[in-house]
Amino acid sequence: MKKCIILANGDMPKKSVVAFLKKRGYTTLICADGGANSALKLGLKTDYIIGDLDSIEPKVKNYFADRCRIIQMKRQNDTDVEKCLKFAISKGFSETILLGATGSRLDHSFCNLGIVLKFFSKIKIRILHDNSLLEAHTGNVTLQTLRDEVISIYGFDKKTKVTSEGLKYPLSKTSLPFGERESTSNVSLGDFVKLNIKNGKMFVIRDFEMMKKNDLI
Do the bridges between strand 132-144 and strand 124-129 make them parallel or antiparallel, or are there none, so unpaired? Predict the structure, then answer.
């Protein structure tokens, strides 16, 4: 299984987080345009810089010119993150974690959340925001958890329903339409949580540091 990190031009992650992910097999770093600015500040070895290159600083572009492959894609019907994802898929990557996908631009953050759904069938995507790790799920899902771990679940429409096993606040064929109902700060009762999600997808958000410390990533 080939795994990569995609670093976008949002909030800069901690260097220690990138180092941890690389040890977990996310050995290739792809920067989405201005994400390269963060890569240089953090002193990260970068493999690819991809995008329309309107956000990368000139000094950063010059620095990486002979240190990684820079690919300019001018088409504007894709965001820079989408360009990176399509490239990763073409290179056989099956899993990625998006860093810097959220930040001061709410429109960019919202767009990147949608991208998780847009590319769901093509590549496994997780978004790391500060200490929250987000992933979309459908069908039968078994999550390895810790007792008292906080888990939040969000849906989008009324037709998608979820049934849970192992949660403090159980869900039984429950729909979680966006803006009407959610399962925020639910709690695991033990080592596993099972979800059965029918007729669509839902977001599951977990505590990254807790998962990291207990080898759940």
Answer: antiparallel
Output the CA–CA distances (angstroms, integers) from residue 3 to 34, 81, 82, 201, in the order listed: 21, 16, 16, 22
The model's pLDDT over 20-37, given as tens digits with 9 standing for 90+, comes to 999 999 999 999 999 999
**Domains in the chain with CATH codes:** 3-130 (3.40.50.10240), 135-213 (3.40.50.10240)
SS3 assignment, position 24: coil
What is the pLDDT of the chain when averaged over all its residues?
97
d(CA 104, CA 57): 19
Which tokens hold the place of 108? 């960019």
13: helix, strand or coil: coil
Residues 6 or more apart whose CB falls under 8 angstroms from that of 16 comprise none
